[in-house]
Amino acid sequence: MEKTPRVLVIRRRYLGDVVLLGSLFRNLRLHWPGAHLAALVESAWSPILSLNPDVDQVLELPKGLAAWPEFVSRVRAERFTHVLDIDNTEKTALVSRLSGAPLRVVLHHGAHPVKLRALYSDIVYETAEVHEAQPISEYYMKALGPAGVPVSTRQVRLVPGEADVAEWRRFVGASGRTLLVHPGSRSAWRIWPSDRFAALCDRVQDELGAQVVLAGGPSEGGLISAIRSKAKTHLLVVEGQTPLPKFAALAAACRVMLCHDSGPMHVAAAVGARVVALYGSQNPMLFRPHGEGHTQLVPPSPCAACVAPEKCVPADSYHNFCVRLHTVDTVFDAVRAALKGVA
User: Where are the domains positioned within the chain?
Assistant: First the structure.
């Protein structure tokens, strides 16, 4: 009798990357309905996988060297038959091999060499040109090939708790005309100015009659305070740190979110919210919001009117201010269209 597949998918971080594993897990579940599907991630991102109905188990990478022997023993005890390593670091290569799984697949792309390649049974390579011309989720799904799993869907979904969504609807109101604004980003260079966020929020409330809700992570308190202080209208603010599953429910309750190209953007798209996303010079294809009805606001490329030529590094999307090329009028028009689409 063929052994029931037990599959471990390794993707350590970040939030958006972990959310976008959804299509890979969905295809595994459709092909092997009875399989045990597990994910290995860093602890910060593991809560979001509780909302993916195709994930049976979440393992967390240990934080200290002393915890590794027990962790490896636990992985071996799971008797995985397949390991799909999206990351390919020295640590994840060792986890793949020490798992004892017969099939150990690793992905790599462009000029990145495979680390500890002898520890894998199968290597899947993608050229830089192909990698940059498609969503990252397409790259993830290439790991399915050596496992003999066909790609039959590209769905990425998170299912927030009904009670959590209902609770947020009581907070934001049930009118259906609510804009969730998440103004943060991992890169300070990619953040739209707070005075423009404030002006946009005022126009949305004054001209569209919609409620604006501000939310962010623990590092974005200063930015949210700045927007709140500059706005002339009353904004609902989600105070303190919101657990990832609760944030997903908030996005589902609001149904439209304005944000940067960020992890929260992918969470919102995965719960069915309509996204208006602000981009700088980063690749708008590689990490675009999944699904239909989203708006990506991307400045012209190559840049013809640099806003900070003395500071920007054109070849490095993490070190330029291209997001500041977006005007309040342009963003307002996109938000108005998005709100109209869910009315």
Answer: 6-147, 162-342
CA distances from 53 to 15, 24, 50, 271 (A): 17, 13, 7, 12
pLDDT in single tens digits along all 343 residues of the chain: 368 999 999 999 999 999 999 999 999 999 999 999 999 999 999 999 999 999 999 999 999 999 999 999 999 999 999 999 999 999 999 999 999 999 999 999 999 899 999 999 999 999 999 999 999 999 999 999 999 999 999 999 999 999 999 999 999 986 668 999 999 998 888 899 999 999 999 999 999 999 999 999 888 999 999 999 999 999 999 988 899 999 999 999 999 999 999 999 999 999 999 999 999 988 999 999 999 999 999 988 667 677 766 677 777 777 788 899 999 999 999 999 999 988 7
The fold of the 162-342 domain, in CATH, is Rossmann fold (3.40.50)
pTM greater than 0.90 (yes/no)? yes
Place of tokens 């590094």: 313
Tokens encoding 44? 């910060």
Task: Using alpha carbons, select from 343, 47, 92 the residue that is nearest to residue 209.
Answer: 343
Residues in Cβ contact with 158 at an 8 Å cutoff, skipping those fewer than 6 apart: 19, 22, 48, 51, 52, 248, 267, 270, 271
Q: Are 54 and 23 in contact (CB under 8 A)?
A: no
Helix axes 162-172, 244-254, angle to 10 degrees: 60
Counting Cβ atoms within 10 Å, is residue 265 exposed (0-12), middle (13-18) or buried (19+)?
buried
- The CA distance from 177 to 157, in Å, is 23
Residue type, 318: Y
Q: Which CATH number fits domain 6-147: 2.130.10.10, 3.40.630.190, 3.40.50.2000, 3.30.1240.10?
A: 3.40.50.2000
